[in-house]
Structures are given as structure tokens and as C-alpha cells.
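COURSE: Structural Biology Practicum
ASSIGNMENT: Worksheet 4, Part C
STUDENT ID: 0417
INSTRUCTIONS: Below are two proteins. For each, the amino acid sequence is given first, followed by its C-alpha cell string. Answer the questions at the end about the second protein only.

PROTEIN I
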Amino acid sequence: MWGPEGLDEVEAELLGPPEELKGRDVLEIGAGAAQCSRWLAAQGARPVALDISHRQLQHALRIGGTFPLVCADAGALPFADGSFDLACSAYGALPFVADPRQVLREVHRVLRPGGRLVFSVTHPIRWAFPDEPGPEGLSVSGSYFDRTPYVEQDEEGRAVYVEHHRTLGDRVRDVVASGFRLVDLVEPEWPAWNTSEWGGWSPLRGNLIPGTAIFVCVRD
């Protein structure tokens, strides 16, 4: 699943036809509990799930799977050049780093020529709106061009959660400057079957403004 809208890789085939995933080496970046890697393994691929959070990977281990789990920084991937055929990230790593180009350059390095990277992030336009599911979430409350990170702190003032805003143009430039060719930018529409509402996600908002941006990139 690429995002809260419910766009499924079986339907989207952004990594390629499922039948062609068999035997491919795939790196999942910011894997969390490794849901994507688990699906990839079921298609016959050889995934590696990477996340900086040891706790998330412990959760992945409890759920189970036969693929490797790697605790590492996405900006310093512990793999040799040209180790993977594909890389993917569903809302992982890239929104949470101050220098996304470092991550993208590392992914470019570990992909084989012709390799593909597909990653999804919150659609940049959402940063201009309140994170509310109802009508109050439909009015612009800030500048789309304000790149100040969103930061949550504990009682001692230490950052416990940080998310960085990049405009759509920023994201495209990051991809190209890191050596990739952008072949598609997917903005999933909210489907009629999805009646879920949680956080700032809802059919009301989803039918009016995009929520997810998916970048499909190729290492030529």
C-alpha cells in the first residue's frame, strides 16, 4: 500500500508487474514493521528491510518473515555499490531527514544500472492546510513555501519527532540532482470504497486535495 488513499502495488505496478518481481533484490527504506518487504517476499522477491528504529524492526521480527532486517541510517547505507534491482519506500525515511539528497544519492549508489526507486511522501500541498479531517482542514493556514520543519519535543526540550517539508519542485530537484530520472509522479485520488477517517485523512479532504505524492525514478 503506497499511502492512506489505499493505492495497492498489485493495482499500480509502480515497481513493475508482480510476476516480474520474482528473484529481484529489493531494498525497502524506512521499512517500519516491514509490511512492504513481507508482500515482496510473497511475490518471490528477495527484499531487505532497513530502518533506523530498532524498536520498529523488533516489531517486524515478531510478525515474522524470512528476509533480512537491517538497523541503519538511510543516509549511510551499509551495502556495496549495485546491490539491488529495486528500492521502495512508503512514507519512510525521506520525510524525516533534513538532507534527502544524501539518502537519494545512497540509494542511487546501491542500485544497479536500470534500477528503479519508488517512494511516497505526504503530498507537499498538505503542509499549507491544517491536519484536520473535517471542513476546518480545507482552508489554507500557512504558506506552502514555508519550509520550517514540524517538530515535537519532550518535557526537556529534546526533539522526539521531526518531519521536513519540501515543495513539489524541491522533491523533483532532489531526485534529478541525485542522478535519477523521474519517470512518473503519481497523485492517487481518494477511492469511493475508502470511507476511513483518521488523523488528517478523510474522504472529504481526499476528494478535494491530494494527500500522497509517489515518485517513480530510474537509475539510468
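PROTEIN II
(use this one for the questions)
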Amino acid sequence: MPKEIKKKSAAREWIESIVIAIILAMFIRTFIVQAFKIPTGSMRPTLLEGDRILVNKFIYGAKIPFTKIRLPKFRDPKRLDVVVFIYPEDKKRDFIKRLIAKGGETVELKNGEIFVDGKKLDDSLVRKIYYYNRGDFGEEGKTIKVPENSYFVLGDNSVSSRDSRYWGFVDKNLVLGNAILIYWPLNRIRLIK
């Protein structure tokens, strides 16, 4: 009889350990950091097809599942952050792009360059990229005002990126987190800038 009790307690310990590990993994994935795989080349050369990345979810205030409530944030998204968000045209898909402008700012693409509030965006992260005038929100000579509580985002590979030039703005409530690290493949491990 004592052996049966030991077997039950050992099985119970295994089950408890597995349940705790699953709960902990779900908590981390929901509120702290989540892994994503890059499916397309829309963010080349920053991110390549097949790159696996980690996204910091708590920095902008992780969303509590099945609610509109967010946890307290450490900071708001900043210009040129690489952000992961729920695609505005298909809520079942996640997208990744570079944040260019915030609510209240104006954006214009002119001669392949980005102008925010009339000033050329001259940062090394975007300086070497030619931004094509495409879509309803990216026409040459058209100045777009970003609505409050929204963001204007662009892919680093302007020629093959479906981004704010085509479908408009990302509501701040759709932002999931900040892409921070490429962890796979091994030869591409690096922080994301």
C-alpha cells in the first residue's frame, strides 16, 4: 500500500509541475515577451523572411486577453520603433513595420524621402531607403494627417511592403509590442534597431 501512495504522489507532482509550467509560459507569452516568425520580405534589410524574433509586450502595456484593458506601460511607442500590431484590415493577422508618425503629426513622401510635420526624417535607420509613392495614403505631394491615438507605419522594404501608404493608420489599441531581438537563425542574432 505505501508504494501505491508514493506512485500517486509522484504522478501528482509531475502533473502539477506541467500545469505550472504551462500557466507560466502562457503568462510570459501574454504579458511579457512573445516569439514571432517573419513571413515576408517587407522589412528587408532589417528583418529577413524566416527570421524569428522576440517582441517585448509589456513596454507599451500588454493587453489583457478578451478585454480592452491594458496593463500600465513603461513608455509610448517612439518614432522609428519596429512595432508588431494587429493588421487593421484582418484582425486575425499580425504585422510588423517601423513607426514613422504619431497622432496629430503630418506625413508626406516626397522624392523617396519621409517628411514629418514638414521636416525631413533624416535618421540613419531610414536615410538609405527610398520610399515609393504608392497607395491612397502615399501619393506624391499628398500630406496626410495622422488621427489622434493612431500611428503611420512603413515597411523598410518600401517596394514590397503593404503598409500605411495603402490602408491608412494603426490604432494604438492594435499595437502588441516592440520587436527587440532576432534569435534565429544563429548567424543573424542581434538587437533590432
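ANSWER KEY EXCERPT:
Q1: DSSP finds three helices and twelve strands in the chain.
Q2: The mean pLDDT is 92.
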